[in-house]
Design a protein that fits this description.
The protein is about 40% helix and about 10% strand. It has about 170 residues and is an alpha+beta fold. It has 2 domains: about 40 residues; about 110 residues, no CATH class. The strands form 2 sheets. The protein has a 3-stranded antiparallel sheet, with helices on one face. A two-stranded antiparallel ribbon has the order 3-4. A hairpin with an 8-residue loop joins β3 and β4. The N and C termini lie far apart (about 110 Å).
Length: about 170
């Protein structure tokens, strides 16, 4: 009862369905597989493992927590300081195109008279002084790029632009 090769019929002829694969096809499939795995590895590194630059730690997304506070004028010597109005924290997008940048800042405005100070800090603001003020500040600062806030001369120009625009209200 020995098995003979002649009697065993598998029904499949390997030469008819391709038999052995050619080495060129195996090499091409290996290169494609390596390219796909390399792309996946790069994407994982780029989005999950890449260390964040130091500037990214300055980005902040959150809710403002400070409320409007008023301070009485504090004369210093011969110079008299006007009435001060502290504004809530501003968080806004900057005009950088390469990647999203955010600016977080607080401001203290100096006004000439107590009536304007009361109007700015009033809960029921009939002329919407605070809304207009914040809108002007947002309009000016949103057009700037992050690099402009690194140069003291440019900051002075931004300050002058803000003073000019706020005094026009």
């Amino acid at each position: 009862m020995a098995w003979e090769e002649e009697n065993i019929d598998t029904g499949v002829n390997l030469e008819e369905i391709g038999g052995r694969r050619s080495p060129i096809k195996l090499i091409i499939m290996g290169v494609i597989a390596l390219a796909v795995l390399g792309g996946i590895g790069y994407a994982v590194w780029l989005f999950f493992l890449k260390p964040k630059p130091a500037e990214d730690s300055e980005k902040l997304i959150g809710e403002p927590t400070e409320q409007v506070e008023t301070q009485t004028p504090q004369p210093t010597g011969s110079d008299t300081v006007g009435y001060k109005v502290s504004l809530e924290r501003f968080i806004m997008n900057l005009a950088d195109r390469d990647e999203p940048r955010y600016l977080q800042t607080t401001m203290v405005l100096e006004v000439d008279n107590q009536e304007l100070q009361a109007n700015l800090t009033a809960e029921a603001d009939p002329k919407l002084y605070m809304v207009k003020t914040r809108d002007i500040i947002n309009d000016v600062l949103r057009t700037k790029v992050a690099q402009q806030f690194n140069d003291p001369d440019t900051i002075k120009e931004i300050r002058k632009e803000l003073v000019f625009r706020l005094n026009s209200v």
